[in-house]
Design a protein that fits this description.
The structure holds two protein chains of two kinds.
Chain A lengths: L13 E3 L3 E2 L5 E7 L3 E7 L8 E3 L11 E9 L2 E9 L3 E9 L4 E12 L8 E5 L5 E12 L2 E12 L2 E2 L3 E2 L13 E3 L6 E3 L1
Chain B lengths: L3 H7 L2 E2 L15 E2 L3 H19 L6 E5 L5 H10 L2 E5 L3 H6 L5 H9 L8 H10 L12 E2 L6 H10 L7 E5 L8 H11 L7 E6 L7 H8 L2 E4 L5 E2 L2
Parallel strand pairs in B: 3-4, 3-6, 4-5, 6-7, 7-8
Antiparallel strand pairs in B: 1-2, 8-9
The chains are: A mainly beta, B alpha/beta.
């Protein structure tokens, strides 16, 4: 296999978006392009066959741009949490179906936040019943004039987000940059 | 900080995320300088600081910038020392004997909820205790220590004892001038006898803790307790 295999240039988004393998044996990556579009690329044999963008008509868009991304696989569905930074923060949920090569959900609002600076962040996990769990930097508290970073979780059940809930204990301290993963054999979602 | 607007700007806390969340179609109920949000913070602070400061139960303590006295409650729990507070803020002295009901109802109404019905009523049950802001067991005087009369009033509140420990609790802001700090530091040293003078401060004070310690010559401790400087 030839390395490196360029998929897209000028990607400046942080987060977790590794390659995924579909049930059909193809490989996919989700990559923000030019910050304002979220692309899905497919290669049947990375390094040999080209990475080809899929379903550009249905892709999520972001203005002024995507800033963080977290992707997790559940069968042939890629669940993608993103955040758009336009001064405030908007967290969104998207899905891409690797069996049909099509976007299913694009730009679905999860929550908004006033978390700024380098502190905003989101991470996603999917439970066996299909519920989607995200943890992220929620709205700030303010103590004695100073912003306090907070961590929230939000669960999507049967297509509806339940609303942000605090994962931290509040107080005069920061909580930041949460990452989550579902346990392999249970539906426990571990958060760090 | 002086007015309610000053306190609102400096303190803002999410509420609903601790009680089941809120829909993303409306804003969340937030509160400001209220007991539900502030008392746990002050309690946590004094649980951390008291062992470091090692203040005996026999001390007579003055806390400057005592707000509604929630920190005093925590301080007494930790030290057992007779303690009085002073605060000259207009907001504190206007509201200390009132309940928080008007402000909390307004906070709930501000996001479109009815504080007497459903979710709004439920939230009121979580954040409103029905009591005056300042607990009856706590003394918070509207005194500034600048005159003998003011200092005598503080002495009287301490069972006719001069304070042996003076704590300046988070009264420095980004815009506070060195001259203002010195003025307060000098004032607490005008009580008869000798006092321990302790500045409790955080990173929003516009100066390092070492700079504050050099400026005042007093003890300085961070609100987290992680830094403690002594003369």
């Amino acid at each position: 296999m030839a390395l490196p295999d360029t998929i897209l240039t000028s990607v400046m988004v942080h987060g977790r978006s590794p390659p995924f393998k579909s049930s059909g044996g193809a490989f996919y990556v989700i990559v923000p392009s030019g910050l304002t579009q979220l692309h899905a690329y497919k290669s049947t044999d990375p390094g040999v066959t080209a990475w080809v963008q899929q379903d550009s008509a249905g892709q999520p868009t972001g203005s002024p741009g995507f800033d963080k991304i977290s992707v997790v696989q559940d069968g042939d569905i890629l669940h993608i949490a993103t955040l758009i930074n336009d001064g405030g923060i908007e967290y969104q949920y998207n899905t891409f179906n690797m069996a049909t090569d099509a976007w299913v959900i694009a730009n679905e609002l999860i929550d908004v936040s006033d978390a700024g600076g380098n502190f905003y962040w989101i991470s996603i996990a999917v439970r066996s019943d299909g519920d989607v769990v995200v943890v992220y930097a929620g709205e700030l508290d303010r103590v004695m004039g100073g912003d306090k970073i907070r961590v929230d979780f939000n669960i999507r059940t049967t297509g509806t987000w339940g609303g942000p809930q605090a994962l931290d204990a509040g107080g005069d301290v920061h909580y930041g940059a949460p990452n989550c993963v579902k346990a392999e054999t249970t539906d426990h979602v571990h958060v760090m | 900080m002086d007015t309610k607007a000053d306190f609102d700007a400096a303190y803002s806390f999410r509420v609903e995320r601790y009680f089941g969340g809120h829909p993303n179609t409306r804003a969340e109920v937030r509160v400001n300088y209220h007991r539900w949000s502030m008392a746990p913070i002050l309690n946590t602070m004094w649980v951390k600081l008291a062992p470091t400061l090692n203040i005996a139960s026999t001390e007579k303590v003055l806390i400057v910038g005592a707000g509604f006295g929630w920190g005093i409650e925590a301080f007494i729990n930790e030290t057992g020392a007779e303690t009085v507070g002073i605060d000259i803020s207009t907001y504190i002295n206007t509201e200390k004997d009132n309940t928080e009901e008007v402000e909390l109802r307004a906070a709930i109404s501000a996001v479109g909820l009815d504080p007497d019905v459903g979710r709004g009523l439920e939230l009121m049950g979580h954040i409103f205790d029905g009591n005056p802001r300042k607990d009856a067991s706590v003394i918070v005087l509207d005194e500034n220590m600048q005159t003998n009369q003011s200092r005598q009033a503080i002495k009287a509140a301490l069972s006719n004892n001069w304070p042996s420990v003076c704590i300046l609790e988070n009264i420095i802001e980004e815009t506070t001038l060195d001259a203002e700090i010195i003025q307060v530091n000098n004032a607490v040293n005008l009580f008869a006898g000798s006092q321990r003078v302790i500045w409790v401060t955080n990173r929003q004070s516009g100066r390092t803790l070492q700079q504050l310690q050099t400026l005042t010559g007093s003890e300085v401790i961070s609100t987290s307790g992680s830094v403690y400087l002594v003369p």
